[in-house]
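Holo prediction — phosphoenolpyruvate.
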Amino acid sequence: MRQPLVAGNWKMHGTRISARDLVSGVRQGLEGLGKPRVAMCPPFVYLADVAAQIQGTALALGGQDLCPEVGSGAHTGEISGAMLADVGCSYAIVGHSERRSLYGDSDEVVARKYFAAQQAGLTPILCVGELLEEREGEHTEAVVARHLDAVLTQPGGVASLAKAVIAYEPVWAIGTGLTATPAQAQAVHAFIRKRIAQHDQAVAERVQILYGGSVKANNAAELFAMQDIDGGLIGGASLEAEQFLAICRAAG
Ligand code: PEP
């Protein structure tokens, strides 16, 4: 049985005060939530504040990105995996479509970030997903396979998935209000699991595959009910405690 995971990606939103209020709202609503693991990924500068606020709760913390370099060094402006772990993170998002499209993260860079996260003891949340024109051109599986293979084909890549999470995020659904139908999402999740199973059946059965793309309180339950959807990576709706908690409950 895979434990559901709901992770909130705050992106570049909030202030110290709004972050504190949001975490406090989520904390209060967590009681009795039960099954799903819940993680929050605030901007780097708020991580330490949030870490202090969630101490002693079941909430987990994640970074939204990390430097592909391991160790410390002359990398002005970068944040290493070790630094994320040091302030209490257990997850790091890698390969988010906004990093790929706006900041030029190639498949190779995403793979390096993925392994850098693992080397720091973090669980990478590897985002994969197609653009609208790629879906319309029936290239969804090819794109998702390419994103996945960037990691799978590395030495130790398949085994590494035992300590990773995958997030299928169709780019056309991110922040647009458009959501993949449960059937569309399930089809890609099943494809991902099958592709991993070609290498290792046990790893494929265990790996959590999240769906992301305009998940809201009113569509979460039907998405999470699908066989291969193990929770969600939530952007906009993670910025409002009640909405985020409702999504977490839908994963329970
Ligand atoms: C995301 O940023 O990963 C995301 C899925 O955003 P949204 O939920 O706002 O579409």
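READOUT: The chain has a mean pLDDT of 96.
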